[in-house]
Amino acid sequence: MIENLKGTHETVNYQGDFKIRIYPNKEYEDYPQHWHTDIEIIMPIKNNFKATINEITYNLDVEDIIIIPPGELHQLYAPPTGYRIILQFDCTLLCSLNGFNSAFHIFRPCVCVTPSSMPDIHKELSSLILDITSEYFSNRVFGEASAYSMLIRFFTILGRSCINRNDKLSSIKKQRQHEYIDVILNVCNYISDHCTENINVDDIASIAGFSKYHFARIFKQVMNTSCYEYLISCRIMHAEKLLINPDLPIMQIAMKSGFSSLATFNRVFKAKNHCTPKEYRAIYVI
Q1: Side-chain half-sphere CA neighbours of 123 within 13 A
Q2: Which pTM was predicted?
Q3: Same domain, yes or no, for 173 and 68?
Q4: Coil, strand or helix: which one is 94?
Q5: CATH code at 46?
Q6: What does the pLDDT look like over 242-282, one tens digit per residue?
């Protein structure tokens, strides 16, 4: 069940500092449309399951896996009988690691891993979910560390697979594909580090060594989003961290996060998080 729902926003309740939550869901209960700032992984164990994300419905068979990134509106439908693992975790756990912040953009609006769609990684990923669940419910020494390490392994495998499977790069020679991917991932790291500064797409294209047009096209192909949208997402993530501090005025947070005006900040923040910065602060600051 959803323990803490305000409007369409779910706040995930974690146990202490362990920022992973696993729910062995056996209830015949549908979940209404909602979103959260956490990443969610669902894998049916017995019987099927259904999820609607951005108005697209995904039917999951046993051991199919769906990964839902932060901020995506979704609705879940359970059959009369069955059992599925629902795993949620705080994305800041991985976003601080080089490469992971950019990887989550590749997964939008979701990723489905099935034996037919990703046969080379499905078995390993499903096994990792079971192993993480085992650690989560055990009292073994270093259980948290073990669960975190397997979660990193899970998204390393998934991220590499999603990038390498990018059909939009299929017309480019294999060696050049890897070169482009390396350049774009390095650019993503640069954007993450400098997103609060006065940078634009022209500056970033120059750093990548491409013309603006060529860079924009390759970035979109690799990351499944535009460079501008990626920059804005990084600025929003930076603002989310600042909003937790109740002493910082929202206008100051907008400026510190790289936005030129409060109006722009409010507009893009609400478009991404389905709430205003003020409402976001009210949710997280007691």
Answers
A1: 2
A2: 0.78
A3: no
A4: helix
A5: 2.60.120.280
A6: 998 889 999 999 999 999 999 999 999 998 888 899 988 88
